[in-house]
Amino acid sequence: MIEAGKIKAFGSYADLEATYGAIPITAYPHQLITPGLIDTHIHFPQTEMIASYGEQLLTWLNTYTFPTETQFADFDYSAKVADLFLAELIRNGTTTALVFATVHPQSVDAFFTAAQRRNLRMITGKVLMDRHAPENLRDTPEQSYGESKALIEKWHGCDRLRYAITPRFAATSSPEQLKVAAQLLAEFPDVHLQTHIAENLDEVAWVRSLFPEAASYLDVYDRAGLVGPRSLFAHGIHLSAAEFARLSTTEAAIAFCPTSNLFLGSGLFKIEVAKNPDQPVKVGLGTDVGAGTSFSLLQTGNEAYKVAQLRQQKLSGLQTLFLATLGGARALNLEEYIGNFEPGKEADLIVLDRRATPLMAFRNPVENPTSLEQLADQVFALMILGDDRAIAATYILGELAHQRDALPGF
Ligand code: GUN
Ligand code: ZN
Question: Where are the chain's structural domains?
Fold first, then answer.
């Protein structure tokens, strides 16, 4: 039961009626309703360069990413891409994301304006980058402080929007700029921090040479004061056991981005190390578009399963659904607001069609699973076979925001 955009109560109609009297119903027979999906790592300015051929991380950045990002100096261009990007997220059932903008404050203004118009709970921030990038994509430590602070004061906590301090990664920030990021994090105790870590072996070697005093990649951020419960690190493919342990102790989070990690040939994330019950690290799923190859967190789950398989590990459909909902909410420290249907949480939800295509209907012949095993099996097949076609509807704060067209063959 939804009231004023929030979950008022959760249960069978008969039970709720006994307490609340007659309640208007929207029925989705034979469908699965889950919380809106949460993407813990994605770049909105990279939408147009998804599927760029032939390179691994560092050359991919120089060849495709940096030239694309220079266009976001223009507010109107940023606004156009932000709108298209958010429409694509909603079509894929994603209702919250932690998003990279570009170094230009205009890109952040445009993104927040578009997200606010759609009533979305979104997090983004201006990229901090003061070296090893083209001149028109660099800022200075002073600029990064002033511009980030102004954006935080303008947008953080405005409706459902939140700010993330966003140093791109250790290689493109001077030690002074990392210190500025830490200063902002201390000054604004409620904002987030996002960056990249240990994605690619050449990147790891480069960072080691740039910060010879640091014991590890994570230690570069740790020494600067950037590792804590509000920090989220994308990738973490090449982290050591000691770095995973430090992430656990500090309650920092990782975004697992399997389609990106396979596309850029970066490597296989060690999900079982991250989820070691003795030292668990908060993990969410990230599409990492434009290095990632799909906006769909179902397809991201499909690739997460295969990454686990290549490491002789298992990741069930229900575990993956957890990573894409409550797990993601915890990774972003947003579980107070979103992630499941506890009364009081915001009513962002999706209607999942386990039988969205003729093949999926053939694979999932039972309309109403009668056991947890059957449900788990269907959710797994939905994750492996599903994509935007399986998102029958998306609701934001209880309001219908997307309804899939009728599909051919049905
Ligand atoms: N590392 C630094 N910048 C980026 C980026 O834009 N994408 C990915 N995948 N890794 C990065
Ligand atoms: Zn990224």
Answer: 2-33+348-403, 37-331
Is the pTM value of this prediction over 0.85?
A: yes
60, 70, 196: which to mutate for ligand 1, most atoms within 8 A of CB?
196
Q: Is the separation of the CB atoms in 339 and 329 below 8 Å?
A: yes
Residues constituting the chain: 410
> 3-state class of 202 per DSSP?
helix
Q: What is the token pair recorded at 410?
A: 């049905």
One-letter identity of residue 311: R
- The two counts, helices (H) then strands (E), for the chain are 17, 15
Predicted local confidence at residue 315, as pLDDT: 98
- What is the distance in A from the centroid of ligand 2 to the CA of 41? 6
CA distance 66 to 69: 5
User: What's the average model confidence in pLDDT over 1-27?
Assistant: 96
> What residue ranges line ligand 1, CB within 6 angstroms?
43, 57, 61, 65, 168-169, 196, 199, 260, 288, 291
What mean pLDDT is reported for the chain? Answer: 97
Q: Which amino acid is at 172?
A: T
Structural fold of domain 37-331? TIM Barrel (3.20.20)
| Tokens coding 345 | 């949480």
Give 260-320 as a 3 state SS string.
Answer: HHHHCCCCCCCHHHHCCCCCCCEEEECCCCCCCCCCCHHHHHHHHHHHHHHCCCCCCHHHH
Write out pLDDT tens, residues 301-317: 999 999 999 999 999 99
Choose the residue to mutate in 42, 49, 65 for probing ligand 1, maximizing ligand atoms within 8 Å of C-beta. 65
